[in-house]
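fyi for ur records
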Amino acid sequence: MDPQFITPFIKSIQNVFSTMMQLQVNVGDPRLKTEPLPAYDVSGIIGMSGDVVGSIVLSFTTDTAMSLVALFSGQKLEAGHPDFADAVGELVNMVSGNAKGQFPGNKRVSISCPTVVVGKNHQVARQKDIPCVMIPCATDCGEVVIEIAIRPAEAGEKSPQPLTAGAGA
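which gave:
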């Protein structure tokens, strides 16, 4: 994986957690992920398409996710509450959206709607041709792992970009 795709996620999680939850994020050393299971029991997943393809996962223990959701939403939500998954999805959405804006070369990238999976030993399927880098992060609420599995798109696999309103549109 191109290292220039890792730094935006490190900066983004630190910025989003600091801004939205007044929470410091200490980032550990990135390493290649070799096992198929996510690091923890709650995974927020975002797909990327356009000039880069792949996926991003924020993985938390249930307790960490509940603490972060409480800080983020201002209310304590149990993992089974419908708004819990929405809040986790919004966190991964903000981290991914902020990071894609920092990619070098003005890349055009779209992100999918987030998916959230809660439960022990779940698997997140990824494209086999894209290595996954794990970045461990520590907060006062607990551990978070960013799993980055993206690469530049090849010419034939770029998805069309949505049209935007503007002059001449």
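The longest helix spans residues 82-100. thats all i got for now
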